Structures are given as structure tokens and as C-alpha cells.
Amino acid sequence: MIRAILCLLACLEFVSVNAQTARTVHDFRLKNTNGKMVSLSDYPSAKGFIIVFTCNHCPFAKRYPGRMNELNEKYKKLGVPLVAISSADTTAYDEDAYPEMVKRAKAGHYNFPYLYDPMQTVARNFAASKTPHAFVIWKQQGNWVVKYDGGIDDNGAEPAKVRHAFVRDAVEALLANKDVPVKETRSVGCAIHYRP
């Protein structure tokens, strides 16, 4: 009897800890490379989002726009659009200035919003650390809950050799009302340098 009670208490504690570790993020409003302001609330029917922190200067980030176009093409129509955000320190990298973002988005035929986070507030909200750094967020009871945090996939250099497409797998699981198989991975890329 005592063992059963202790087991029950341990289970309740586990559930409580898990409930507390669900991380939420706030909506934001940032300037897109087409000059318009964009926020999550502009997508009232969205079930979730793929949010990718990226930039122009990082060699790792330069490998992913094609894959990001593919993710947005596939999942936007299913209610999970992709939004890219540059929170790079433009005082350190001229290549990441807003006019250069506009050029890059046009040259790369981006089919997703590429947003400018000049004060780095959105990156801090998400605790983004690298470029690229991907998040899958899902709407639950009016909140945006982080369901996946990490790399887009496991092979930046060779897309044909990707074995684990982490973002895709997370979105597919959520659309099927299943648990995300891998909830967190290490993002590989250039560090986001936060200004003091």
C-alpha cells in the first residue's frame, strides 16, 4: 500500500514537472523584406509555425534557404507556415543589414517571410543561439508552445544525405496528433552574438 502511494506521488510529481517545463513564446511584430510588418496573429488559422533564426553571413545558414522554401511550400497549406528571422548583430556583420536581407530574399526566391529583428528581442524570447536555429511552435489554449528546438536536419552540407529531418518529423507528428519524436537537438551554425 505504501509502495503504491509513493509510486502515485512520484507520477504526480513527474506530471507536474512536465507541465511546468512546457515553454511558451510571445507573438511579435517585425518588418519583412517586402516592407510589410508581420506577426503570428496575421495567420489566424495557423495550427503552428516553423520559426527559423537565420542570417546572410553564416556559411551554415546559406545552405538552408532551398530546404526552407520546401518546408514552407509543403506545410503552409496545412496550417504550419515557415517564418525566418534575422537577429544578427549588424554592427559586426554589414552583410546582415536590412537592405542586404532584401537582396538575399529576392535572389533566393524566398517563399516565406524573412523578418528583421534589429533589437534582438524575438531571438531572446526564443533563446535562439545559432544560425540556423529552428523551432516548431504549436497553438495550445491560446498560447504558442515550443514543441521542437534545434537543427532543421542532421546534414547541412549534403541535403541528399539527411537521415533525420527533425523539423519535418516534428510537424508531421503534431499534424497527426502524436508526440514529437525528437523534441530537442543541438543547432549547428554560427553563434548569434547578443548585444549587451
For this entry, give a set of tags.
196 residues; alpha+beta; Glutaredoxin; 8-stranded mixed beta sheet; two-stranded antiparallel ribbon; 5 helices; 10 strands; 22% strand; disordered N terminus
Describe this entry's structure for a reader.
This protein is α+β, with helices and mostly antiparallel strands. The protein has a single domain (24-191), classed as Glutaredoxin, CATH 3.40.30. It is 29% helix and 22% strand. Strands 1-9-8-4-5-6-2-3 form an eight-stranded mixed beta sheet. α3 (98-107) links the parallel β5 and β6. It is globular and about 45 Å long. The termini are far apart. Residues 1-20 have low confidence and may be disordered.
Secondary structure elements and pairings:
Blueprint: H1 2-21, E1 24-25, E2 29-32, E3 37-39, E4 48-54, H2 65-75, E5 82-86, H3 98-107, E6 114-116, H4 121-126, E7 130-131, E8 133-140, E9 143-150, H5 166-175, E10 190-191
Parallel strand pairs: 4-5, 5-6
Antiparallel strand pairs: 1-9, 2-3, 2-6, 4-8, 7-10, 8-9
